[in-house]
Amino acid sequence: MKSTGSTALLDEVRRRLSPERFAHVLRVAELARAVAPAVGVDPDKAYRAGLLHDLAKELPDRELLRLAPPENEVERAHPPVLHGRAGRKLAEGLGERDPEVLAAIEGHVVGVGPDFPLGMLIYVADLAEPGRGFNRDLLPLLESGRLLEAYRRAVERKVAYLESRGIPVHPRTREVQRALEAA
How far is residue 114's CA from residue 131's CA, in Å, rounded to a whole number? Predict the structure, then answer.
C-alpha cells in the first residue's frame, strides 16, 4: 500500500470521488488519525481506512451489485448499503493489503463488532466528522478514549434514523446492536 502521505494515493482517491465526497473522506481520515492514539488504534491504519472508506459511495447501483453481490433482501432492495463491501474491493485494487483496514472499510456502513476498535473508529468518524454538522457530541467521547460509548451512540442513532424514515435496518446492524447491548 502506498504510504499515508502518498500524493499518488490521494490523487487516485480524489480522481474517483466528487470534490464534496473527497473533502468528506479527508475529514474522516484526519479525524480518525487524530483520535487514534486515544482509542488504542494505529494512526496510519486509521488514516488509510478513513481515506479509503467511501471509494465506492458514488458508484451506480449496477456497479455496486457487480462488485458486491447482495447477500440479503436489504442489500437487494437498497444497493447503496453495498458500498462498504464494494469499497473494500476497490481498496484492494489500489494495493491495500492490511486486513484490519479492509475490514474497517467494509464495516463502516453496517457496523462491526465491539471487539474491533479500528472499525468502530471509522464508523463513528464517518458520522461525526466536523463537516457533517451533527453528532458533534461524539467527538469528546473519542478524544477522551471512550470509543465503545461513542460507537454505541452512533449505532443507536443510525438505527433510529433509518427506522424514522421507514428504511430497513441491515441484519448485520441488528447483530451489532445486540452485541453492543451485551457489551
Answer: 26
